[in-house]
């Protein structure tokens, strides 16, 4: 099998190692990967801010950047969920790109969903001897619908102890532009999320969403707290060589 990679903006610009680790995981699972360097933003930030025309332009570009019938895999349920659920609002139903979108959304997968439900590959021989907790990002849980998959993958990591924090499915306070438009509310939500994580005694807080991790990381660093955020792809790629 050969799949196309969709690498969202946050990961491309701020966490490129996560994208490389995703490639490492897919190759270990026996999947060849292709990457179109012309790909750009999926349009979610513009859409959520009310700039639908700008988002529509990016949506038209996205469907053209991923032609053919190969499956598409991404380390973000937020972006994949947006494409699956909202591109239909942007295209005129008589537009050819609307038809392309209907086909594209059926071959677009978030990484953990793809590994667990499509490949049935859950044990990478990873090792991560730390106590961790998992943050169910709003978009991953509610827009895309993953909850079991990340936990199943983490259960196979040697030395990893997963503990559940209180209100694991509550928003971390990021919410795209919410973090800038409602700073005080957002900051309180982030504080609560990190405090719940700290109360478990975990050394790391894991998520499928780099945007959430960026928000959480900023609070942790500002307050010099003894916990670190990390993407699940980075965990699954730990403790083994790709050679």
Topology:
Elements: E1 2-5, H1 9-14, H2 16-28, E2 32-35, H3 44-48, H4 52-65, E3 72-74, H5 77-90, H6 96-104, E4 108-110, H7 111-119, E5 131-134, H8 138-144, H9 148-155, E6 161-162, H10 178-181, H11 183-199, E7 204-207, H12 210-223, E8 228-231, H13 232-236
Parallel strand pairs: 1-2, 1-3, 3-4, 5-6, 5-7, 7-8
Helix pairs in contact: 5-6, 5-8, 7-9, 11-12
Molecular structure report:
The protein is of the alpha/beta class. The chain has 13 helices and eight strands. The chain has helices spanning 9-14, 16-28, 44-48, 52-65, 77-90, 96-104, 111-119, 138-144, 148-155, 178-181, 183-199, 210-223, 232-236; strands at 2-5, 32-35, 72-74, 108-110, 131-134, 161-162, 204-207, 228-231. The longest helix has 17 residues, at 183-199. It starts with a strand and ends in a 7-residue tail after the last helix. The mean pLDDT is 92.
């Amino acid at each position: 099998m050969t799949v196309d990679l969709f690498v969202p903006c946050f990961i491309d610009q701020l966490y490129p190692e996560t994208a490389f680790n995703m490639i490492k995981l897919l190759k270990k699972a026996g999947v060849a990967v292709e990457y179109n360097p012309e790909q750009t933003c999926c349009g979610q930030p513009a859409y959520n801010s009310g700039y639908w025309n700008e988002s529509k332009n990016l949506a038209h570009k996205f469907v053209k950047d991923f032609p053919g019938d190969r499956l598409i895999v991404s380390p973000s349920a937020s972006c994949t969920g947006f494409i699956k659920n909202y591109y239909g609002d942007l295209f005129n139903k008589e537009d050819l790109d609307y038809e392309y979108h209907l086909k594209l959304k059926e071959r677009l997968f978030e990484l953990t969903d793809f590994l667990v439900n499509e490949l049935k590959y859950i044990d990478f021989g990873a090792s991560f001897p730390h106590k961790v907790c998992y943050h169910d990002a709003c978009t991953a849980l509610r827009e895309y619908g993953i909850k079991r998959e990340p936990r199943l993958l983490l259960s196979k990591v040697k030395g990893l102890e997963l503990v559940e924090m209180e209100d694991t499915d509550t928003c971390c306070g990021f919410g795209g532009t919410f973090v800038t438009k409602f700073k005080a509310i957002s900051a309180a939500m982030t504080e609560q999320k990190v405090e719940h994580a700290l109360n478990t005694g975990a050394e790391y807080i894991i998520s499928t969403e780099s945007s959430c991790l960026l928000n959480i990381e900023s609070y942790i660093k500002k307050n010099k707290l003894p916990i670190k955020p990390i993407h699940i792809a980075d965990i699954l790629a730990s403790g083994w060589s790709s050679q």
